[in-house]
């Protein structure tokens, strides 16, 4: 009877005590969250109740397992498995707490930041820090689990003497990985590119959708996702249309005939721009930027609040100007001249007689005169 009662008391008491402690911590977080509604941290920390309960239960069972008199010769094996489970549960709890802290910091800063660009920068930094913390916790947990086995300890001790050579070999083999790692840190804390930035990379226009320690995902305008190593952004030039503000100036180029009514065209451009919701009211203009023997180049410029707005405004201005010119001033559109001009002389008649009325015409060849 005692062999059954002791294990039941240990396991039952561990379950009840773990549940009670986790419930008490949860109630404490609820009260703190009610007193501090300005931050969501305490509410997010409640997600760690399950891993906390698991850690407490396994720790209590492992601590009082000797009093159960179970296992016999396999007691060492049971305690080893309890230790492994405890390490895994502890890593689970640390990851939940780290995620809650990162999310709370991101939400709180986004709510008080008046600059969207700074909010995106903080979000990018927190995302990368969270991924690095996750990687470190997982690596440490796996290493702690492996070190619980005697065989792994022996292997680690024997390889310690050659750690220098192995480090050099590993550094050479992981050169690309380390390059991407440091590039990711440079992007996160150097404010080069952030999640949500509008970029042009290798001729592709899109928005930064995801940034990790090793790669970056760009969502293009046609909903394609381009995955690129983060080292690309530290080694090659790219366009970041959101850096320093989202306001942009767009241009529309038209090739017109020299007879195009520039004054009316300028007035029509102003009418179209002012009627558009995408125009931010800063500036607009229309000038002649180049001329050729057959056409002139006209540039219409306008401003907008975001890259998406400037794209919509450009296509709207281009379409409406071409439509207006086609309907109201078709002669202003460029055309290819195939007929003679008004001052051109008529072509000579090949069948007409020469000056004496008898000789060959203008396209006939006279016979050469004999030499004297």
How would you characterize this protein structure?
The protein folds into three domains: 2-112, no CATH class; 152-245, SH3 type barrels; 248-332, Alpha-Beta Plaits (2-Layer Sandwich). The strands form two sheets. A five-stranded antiparallel beta sheet has the order 4-3-2-1-5. A three-stranded antiparallel beta sheet has the order 6-8-7, covered by helices on one side. Helix 1 (2-35) runs antiparallel to helix 3 and helix 10 (262-275) packs across helix 11 (307-328). The protein is α+β, with helices and mostly antiparallel strands and 372 residues long. The protein contains eleven helices and eight strands. Strand 2 (204-211) and strand 3 (215-220) form a beta hairpin.
How many DSSP H or I helices?
A: 11
The stretches of 5 or more residues where confidence is low (pLDDT under 50) are 159-166, 359-372
Assign an overall shape.
Answer: elongated
Q: Can you count the beta strands?
A: 8
Order of helices and strands: HHHHHHHHEEEEHEEHEEH
C-alpha termini separation: 151 Å
Q: How many structurally independent domains?
A: 3
Largest beta-sheet characterization = 5 strands, antiparallel
Strand content: 15-25%
Radius of gyration: 39 Å
Q: Biggest sheet: strands side by side, in what order?
A: 4-3-2-1-5
* Mean pLDDT over the residues: 77
Percent range of helical residues: 40-55%
Label the structural class: alpha+beta
The quaternary structure here is single chain
């Amino acid at each position: 009877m005692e062999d059954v009662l002791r294990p039941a008391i240990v396991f039952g008491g561990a379950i009840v005590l773990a549940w009670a402690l986790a419930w008490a911590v949860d109630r404490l977080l609820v009260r703190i969250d009610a007193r501090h509604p300005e931050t969501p941290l305490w509410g997010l920390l409640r997600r760690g109740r399950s891993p906390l309960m698991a850690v407490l239960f396994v720790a209590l069972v492992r601590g009082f397992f000797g009093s159960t008199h179970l296992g016999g010769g396999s007691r060492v094996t049971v305690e080893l498995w309890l230790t492994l489970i405890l390490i895994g549960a502890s890593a689970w709890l640390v990851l939940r707490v780290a995620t809650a802290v990162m999310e709370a910091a991101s939400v709180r800063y986004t709510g008080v930041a008046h600059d969207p660009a700074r909010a995106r920068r903080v979000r990018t930094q927190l995302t990368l820090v969270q991924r690095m913390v996750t990687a470190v916790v997982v690596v440490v947990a796996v290493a702690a689990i492996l070190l619980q086995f005697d065989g792994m300890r022996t292997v680690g001790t024997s390889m310690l003497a050659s750690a220098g050579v192995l480090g050099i070999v590993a550094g050479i083999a992981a050169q690309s990985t380390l390059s991407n790692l440091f590039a990711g840190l440079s992007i996160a804390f150097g404010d080069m590119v952030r999640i949500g930035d509008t970029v042009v990379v290798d001729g592709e226009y899109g928005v930064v959708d995801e940034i990790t320690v090793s790669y970056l995902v760009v969502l293009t305008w046609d909903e394609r996702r381009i995955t690129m190593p983060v080292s690309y952004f530290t080694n090659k030039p790219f366009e970041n249309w959101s850096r320093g503000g989202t306001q942009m100036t767009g241009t529309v180029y038209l090739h017109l005939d020299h007879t195009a009514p520039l004054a009316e065209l300028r007035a029509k451009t102003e009418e179209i721009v002012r009627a558009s919701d995408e125009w931010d009211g800063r500036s607009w203009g229309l000038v002649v930027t180049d001329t050729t023997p057959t056409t002139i180049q006209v540039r219409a410029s306008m401003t907008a609040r975001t890259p998406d707005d400037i794209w919509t405004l450009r296509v709207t201005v281009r379409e409406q100007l071409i439509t207006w010119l086609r309907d109201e001033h078709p002669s202003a559109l460029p055309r290819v001249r195939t007929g003679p001009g008004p001052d051109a002389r008529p072509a000579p008649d090949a069948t007409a007689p020469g000056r004496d009325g008898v000789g060959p015409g203008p396209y006939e060849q006279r016979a050469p005169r004999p030499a004297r």
